[in-house]
Amino acid sequence: MQIDPIERSVQLNVGELASFRNKLVTDRSSSGHWRASIGRDWHQTMEQQTRNAHPDARFEIPLSAQWRHSEWLFKIKGRMDQLIPTANGYLIREIKTIRHTLPSTEEDLVKFYPDYFAQIAIYLRLASIQNEYTKSILSASLILIDIDTGTVQTVEIDTPKADMFERQLNAMIPFLQDRRNSLNALKECSIKPAYKKLRGGQAQLQTTLNKSALQAKTVLLEAPTGFGKTGIVLEHALRHLQLGVYNRCIYLSSKSTGQLETIKQLRAMSADAIRYLQMRNRKEHSIDTPTHTCSTDKQCEHTSAQLWRDADIHPGKLFKRGTFELENAKDIGAKNGLCPYALTKSCLPYADIWIGDTNYVFSPQSRGVFIDTIGFDPSQTLLIVDEAHNLPQRAAEALGIELSATELLFAYEELRVSGAPRRFLRPLEELSTRINTLRADQTLSSNTHYTLLDLCEDIEQQIAQIHIHWNSVPPFVTELVWRVPPLAKCLAASPQKWLHWSPSNGVLRATCLDARKWISDCITPFGGSILMSATLSPIEHFREDCGISNANSIMAPGYASWREGAYDVAIDTRIDTRLKNREDSYLTTAQTVAAMINESTDEPIAVFFSSYHYAQNIEAYLSKLHPEYKLSIQPRRVDLEEQKLFMEHGLKTADALFLILGSSYSEGVDQLGGRISKAMVVGPALPEVNCVQEARLDALSHYHREMRFQRVFIEPAMRRIHQALGRLVRAPEHKAKILLHGRRYAENAYYDQLADEYKTDQRITNQIDLINWLRRKTIS
């Protein structure tokens, strides 16, 4: 859909007009594509039947028309399924596959599938103004096919149903007018600068960003933590929205802290003048009330459309102070029996800025929430991805597929009880049996690989051919079975792209090794994109991992001169932190932590470890050496509020905070800046050597051995260190002493990957060196 608020015109297809306020659920799960495949098969079957009965019939007839309604010009395009000559004119037929017991009353069918009836009504009305049909008598019918049983029911479109065309136009007018008013208000609103007084480097980055956006569709913005990237990029986005370069902005961050900081910055710049919506996940929206209980899947959304209309809820009116809060969605959901998640999704078309997780664009299962939103046009949208250094990994994880033998067995039993045919159950049972033989951390043998591929392809064919009463089985069964067809494609793909292995006994996982094309395909449709992070470097490797070419992208670096000299770094070469040798130096590490605590009397120190196990071992040693020290090791599996409480309590009461590299504490919590002036990083946290990492090494066979090791192991480890250390110096007045504890930091392969501010000639070879360095004042 493309809306021109100035001309008061809208270009859209028949499906978009028909589904407006009729269809609240987007099914972008793996089953969505296969439901479409089944739909195509039934269309072909019905087409052949019609050809046999009506040789003069026409199929897939394009239709376009302009229709003016309430001062708006609708430019509508569509494609009619069937057009059959009659004695006095033509019969228009629309074919739809559903999962609903047929035959059913017309009243129920209209209630459950209003968008299908609206669609055929739109075709009937638009055809009536085409020159080809003006002298003909037109009629229409909707053919519904239950894919579970193959039952067919035909519903004739009478005058009340035909009037659904006007109803849809009337329903859309308030939305179009709202978008027009919103865009006009955006152009006229006063946007405050991101910062009252610019710090060193910020003005230059603003200029660079504006120039870069004119030169390439994708801007790669790299600037240190604490530089002010969020504010600068948001100001850039808001100015371009005002100018009409874009009509919407999507801001993605994989960390909740990043999303909340973005909202805080946005409100400071625009107050309530600009509508924004933070799309939280399904679990956070969940309610359990007498009127509605949310399920763990999409099922609870399917009953919302009629309740939405009954409650006469208008999304544009739900926004308060520029947004629609999560708690408001829950309250309205509980009051009206609505799914809060569906309610929030339905407010997306009315917001100028969408804020959410990277999955909403880069996950096949979740991206439909944003991409299929009514009125969304990627070519008129600016995409901003924060913490973009995580994008290749997050996208690859989102593409992965996993099947458990136990879950498959449960699904098999449910399908057997529901009466699924034996020819479908047989390969499903064998697939479960085969997966059950898989052992943990093992890749598939060639024989097992091809056996599983044959079984998955067999199940895929059966899904398209048989009729199953999907409504009679639990939703998890449907979701599980529909994972099999995409898994078949993964098993058939190049081994350079996918690894097929078992992460635990009786589990099969397809892990994506190369998400470049997927990431590129997701980014390309957008009118502009900004991928930003403090740690994109090495830039060429990041470009390659994201499938971004030099021709379509440009760098926009932010340089903070105040970071020069902010870090006093030393490399401790006394110990070897590799897994096989680190136990020999636990005592030295504990003594080093103690020395840093002794030299830091006014505030705690931060110690970063590669794993919980490593941190716990040093905690045990240190507790024996100095039981008087208060040590705080980050807790596992806590929410954002609990993280903040831990950090605040630790900063006030602890002698040392033990944090894990790569965790939300080291990468997503910004409370350390200016409050920690001494930190220690215990060895680079290299990824675990396992079959996945070995497969990634093999996938980079075009590189020499040292470069492959650097790409797969060293670069991710050093990036985690940069993310952690960057949060210690977030302003010109911040200073920090950093001890890189482990001799590998002095090796060229690791030292060369350090950012310039962390490179040093200072080496710690004994305890005296350490004490002297700790007592040396940091140069201001």
Describe the largest sheet.
Answer: 7 strands, mixed
Q: Count up the helices.
A: 31
- Summed up, the domain count is 4
CATH architectural type of the largest domain: 3-Layer(aba) Sandwich
Overall geometry comes to globular
What Rg is obtained from the alpha carbons, in whole angstroms?
A: 30 Å
Kindly report the average pLDDT value: 92
| CATH homologous superfamily (4th level) name of the largest domain | P-loop containing nucleotide triphosphate hydrolases
Helix content: 40-55%
The rounded distance between the terminal residues' Cα atoms is: 57 Å
Unreliable stretches: 25-30
Beta-strand content bin: 15-25%
| CATH fold category name of the largest domain | Rossmann fold
CATH class label of the largest domain: Alpha Beta
| Record field, number of beta strands | 25
The class by helix and strand makeup works out as: alpha/beta
Characteristic terms for this protein:
780 residues; alpha/beta; Lambda Exonuclease, Chain A; Rossmann fold; Fumarase C, Chain B, domain 1; seven-stranded mixed sheet; seven-stranded parallel sheet; 18% strand
Topology:
Elements: E1 2-4, E2 9-13, H1 14-19, H2 30-53, E3 58-69, E4 72-85, E5 89-98, H3 106-112, H4 114-127, E6 137-146, E7 152-156, H5 159-162, H6 164-188, H7 202-215, E8 218-222, H8 229-243, E9 248-252, H9 256-270, E10 276-279, H10 282-285, H11 304-311, H12 326-336, H13 340-347, E11 353-356, H14 359-362, H15 368-371, E12 381-385, H16 391-399, E13 401-404, H17 405-417, H18 422-436, E14 442-443, H19 446-465, H20 475-481, H21 484-492, E15 498-502, E16 507-512, H22 516-523, E17 528-533, H23 539-546, E18 553-557, E19 567-572, H24 586-598, E20 605-609, H25 612-625, E21 631-633, H26 640-653, E22 656-660, H27 664-667, E23 678-682, H28 691-699, H29 705-726, E24 736-741, H30 748-751, E25 763-764, H31 767-775
Parallel strand pairs: 2-4, 5-6, 8-17, 8-18, 9-11, 9-12, 10-11, 12-17, 19-24, 19-25, 20-22, 20-23, 21-22, 23-24
Antiparallel strand pairs: 1-2, 3-4, 4-5, 6-7, 13-16, 14-15, 15-16
Helix pairs in contact: 3-4, 7-8, 8-9, 12-13, 17-18, 17-20, 18-19, 19-21, 24-25, 28-29
